[in-house]
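Thread: "does anyone have the structure for this chain?"

Original post by V.I.:
We have the sequence but no experimental structure in hand. Need at least a predicted one for the grant figures.
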Amino acid sequence: MIARLRRKLTLLVIGVLVIVTTGIVFAISYGNYRAVDQRAYAALNALARNRGMRPGLRRMNGGEDAPDQDRPPRMPDDADFNDSVANLSTFYTVTLADDGGVASWSSDREALYTDEDVAELTASALASGQETGRVGNQYFRLWEYDGARRLTVLDARLEHMAARSVLRTTALVAALACALLSFAAWLLIGRMVRPVQEAFERQKQFVWDASHEFKTPLAVISANAEVLAGEIGRNEYLGYIQSEVRRTDRLVQNLLTLARMDKGAVTAQMARFDLSNALMEVALPFESTVFEAGRTLETDIPEGVFVRGDREMLQQLAVILLSNALKYSDDGGRIRLSLRQKGHGCRFSVYNTGPGIAPENLEKIFDRFYREDLSHNSEIAGNGLGLAIARNIADAHKGRIHAESNYGKDATFVVTLPA
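Reply from O.Q.:
Generated one for you, C-alpha cells below.
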C-alpha cells in the first residue's frame, strides 16, 4: 500500500514536471522563432523602402556605390534599419516580368543562389497570393518601384538553424533537469511517507497481535456456549451469543489473513493448474446456497483454461466474490461466474444484479473496513475485509481486480491474471 502510494505520488510529480518543462521549452522555442520572424519582416520592410539595397553597400542593380543624392531618405521609423538587415542572412531582389516570371535578379552574394533557386522561390511566393510571407526559411515581400513589380527575398536559414540549435539545447537541458528533479522527488517522497510507513507497520503489528489475543477468549466462549447449549437446550439468548461468536471469529480470521499477507507470511505457491476445474469446484457447492437465497447462479466456464498461480488462493478469491455477489444481489436476482482466456493469461468475473456500486466508490470498496452506504447496508452481514483480501490475492499473482457497475442495476468484479 505504501509502495503504491509512493509510486502514485512520484508519477504525479513527474507528470507535473514533464508538463512544466515541456511548456517552458515550447515557450522558449516559440519566442525564439517569433523573434526571427519579427526581425525578418522588419528587415524586408526596410529593404523595400530602400529600393532593395543594403545600406552602406553597393547598389544591388548596378554594382557601383550609389551617390548620396540617389539614395532614398531614411524613414522616421527606420531606427533599427541597419541592425535588422545586418544581423540577418543574405537577401536578393527579383524584378518580375509581366507574365510573373523572373526578368532579372541581383544579390550581394550571388554565388549562394542559382537561377533555378530564384525562379522556384519566386513561383512559390507568387502562388501564395500574399504580399509578404514565408516559404521554408525564405521570407519574401512584394513591392513596386519605377513601374516594375519587385520581390525581395530574405534568406534566414542561419537564423532558423540557430533557433533549432537553441531548441535542441533547451530540450536536452529540460530533460536532464526533469530526470534529476524526478529522482529528487522519489527520494523526498520516500522521506515524506516514511512516518506513514512506520505507522502502517505498527498498525499491522497491532492487528496481528490483537487477532491472536482474540482467538483464545473466543475459543473459550464458543466451547462454553456449546456446553451450555447441551445442558439447557435451545435458547434465544444463547443463540445470539453463538451467532456473535461466529461473526467475531470470521472477523478475526480475516484480520489474521490480512496480517499474514502484510507480513509476507502467506505467499502464493505458483504452479500451472486448470483454473476451469478450480472455479467449477467452487461454483457447484455454491449453487445450493444461492438457490436457498432465492437467486440463480449461472456459470460460463469453458474447459481447459490453465493459469500459473496458487490454486487455493484463487479459489478463495472466487469464494469472496461469489459471497459478495450473493450478499448484494436483489431478490430473485442473477449471479454469473464467467471465465475467458485472454492472450497468454485469463480473465474471470462475477456478475450480479442488484443496487450496483456508485461510480465514486468503485475504488474505495477494496479498502479495508470500507462498506458502501452503511445506513443502507446495516442489515447485511460483513466487515469490509473480503474485497481487501481479494485484492491482496490478485496482487500476489501480479494480476488486477477492479469493479464495474451500472449503478442501480448490476455490478461486476473482474480479475485479470497474467500467464
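V.I.: this helps a lot. The longest helix spans residues 157-232.
O.Q.: and Confidence is low (pLDDT under 50) at residues 57-81, 374-378.
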